[in-house]
Amino acid sequence: MQEHEKFIKEAVKMAKGNVNTGIGGPFGALVVKDGEIVGRGVNKVTSTNDPTAHAEVVAIRDACKNLSSYQLTDCIVYASCEPCPMCLGAIYWARPAMLVYAAENTDAAKAGFDDSYIYKEVSLPPSKRKLPTLNIKPDDFFSPFQRWLDSEIKKIY
User: Fold this and answer.
1) Which of 1, 18, 51, 109 has most Cβ atoms within 10 angstroms of its Cβ?
2) What is the set of active-site residues?
3) Is 47 exposed, middle or buried (0-12, 13-18, 19+ CB in 10 A)?
4) Is-contact 105 79, C-beta < 8 A?
5) Is 108 exposed, middle or buried (CB count within 10 Å of its CB: 0-12, 13-18, 19+)?
6) What is the pLDDT of residue 111?
7) What is the mean pLDDT of residues 1-24?
8) Under 8 Å CB-to-CB from 38, ≥6 apart: which residues?
9) What backbone torsions phi and psi does residue 10 show, to the nearest 5 degrees?
């Protein structure tokens, strides 16, 4: 528990520090493996004009680069705040051993970062979402997947 507290405090410190940089919002994250930080990230959305540049995604990218792996096996992700739906999805895809966070999404909402709308939208069928969504299936829509299934060089993940 003491090690978790050490790393979560570091993520919160990174989030606080990011506020004064103008790089992005008040979020920080890190990835730890065997007690060592292998990836760091702060929110860079506004400075990079990249809506996916959330702290957790930046930290995952950094860790994967440093570990030369697309998965975070045996790693722990520490986030200054409960991850949004996009980041949570990225964390699941990275397959770490654990996620630890400090502030809850309701705390972020009080500061103007309310992602409850996205949580609600994702749970709806596409036809009920506020974002107009159209599903068009050309004759060969499944062909990329079939090619993947038939491939002898695919790397399962």
Assistant:
1) 18
2) 56
3) middle
4) no
5) buried
6) 96
7) 96
8) 31, 32, 62, 63, 66, 67, 75
9) -65, -40
